[in-house]
Amino acid sequence: MELNVINAPLTVHEIEWRVQSQTKDGQKIIVVPYITNRCVMQRFDEQFGWAGWQNEIKEIEGGFLCTITAILPGGEIVRKTDGASRTSVEPVKGGISDAMKRCAVQFGLGRALYDFPKVLIETTDKYIPNWATPLLDKMVEKINAGGAVRDVVVLKPEHAKPTVKI
Description:
By secondary structure, the protein is of the alpha+beta class.
């Protein structure tokens, strides 16, 4: 069975970018794309119907395991499991959410994000600047359209279109 909805390209609204690290010179940050947990729920609902899948969370030492069970149209049951550590910001909620997102990748949802280029943003801040978000969105749209993107992308303030302040 083909999982068309699960494997369809992710939209900019289904991806959240997180800062992974800052370069040694402190002049750039490295950001990585993740699927959102809402994306997981929406895609599984669309693919299997709201009653055609379920998740089970199990607490383990240091984190959580998530098992997603889905019923295929022919009645076959598919079950996959993955886990994640507690997170630093919201340890329980974040860990559960991360485990579920990692488990969804086992089904193929968001797996294409592993093929995204390495993205650096020119900034001394420790967070993604507002000017970079539209550039990240454009890159996702270009990738979804089949456009070629370098292995490493460096976003700079001058790449952003100036915004008009009222």
